[in-house]
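Let us practice reading a record.
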Amino acid sequence: MEVSIIIPVYNVEKYIIDCLESVLNQSYKDIEIILIDDRGKDNSIKLIKDFLSNYKGSINISIVSHNENKGLSAARNTGIANAKGNYLYFLDSDDTLPFNAIEKLIIPAQRYNSDIVMGNFNIIGAKWKYVLKSYGHLYDNKSIFIDYLKNKWFVMACNKLIKKSFLLDNGIEFKTNLLHEDILFSFNVASKVNDIVCIKDYTYNYIIRNNSITTSKKYKNFKDLLYIHKKNFDIIKNRNLSSKEINAVSDYLVKCVFYFNQELYKQISISDNEKDELNNCIMEFYYTQKRLYNSVSFIEWIKSIMVRQHNSIKKILFRII
């Protein structure tokens, strides 16, 4: 078995069959599908079982059930534990794949024996677009890590063909009970991987839906994001950074804080007192790290001026940016 496609399933009855069909219709067939039943409250699993009862193809499809709802991270970890493929591919159950996605990814993976191959995202339902800025075969961790810090590749765990042995050998898994877990996962990956291939082909249909985690954030989103930033900078402290990495880390620090503020002050479900608390926490983090990483590019210097403004000014400023 070459590729294990891991699909967590939780309250996605409207989308799961489209997702599943897009995998079964892949041009590359040496795959298995692992559906993780995370104990949702709708008819997702029933729909899957009814659909599979009529499936006559050769692809092995298994359903692994949790005893209770455990969340996305735990579901993905269960998928990793049950996967038989040399490569893993995480697919969210409300997204779909272009028909040749896995074929496009597996060819360079086998050619270079790479730890990771990633492609572009087709963003559906949003005004913004994503373009993978890393390209080609990268086989130096410092260069890969700098590309990650410069946001040249998407932080989502999905749409990355990942060698299973790489995750196991480095003890990388998803932290449970955490929102934005992909940021911590991808940062861990970027800090350790030595061989990746980036292709221009679109290999994932990422569908933005109203009221998803990506479009509606609450207090816990920001508390968890702050936790992740702290964990990521703990990883950085243990690296022997080159001068280029130090510059990239300095810019990355400003980007993290700027994005945190930009998203925080747009939310209507978070009170002003909570916003003040969260802002104070992220700025304490910023000033602590800034002592170590203080050299920034001109654009990030401008952003740093914005994030250092008083709370009352930021409440106005970040609502219009």
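A brief commentary: The chain has a mean pLDDT of 94.
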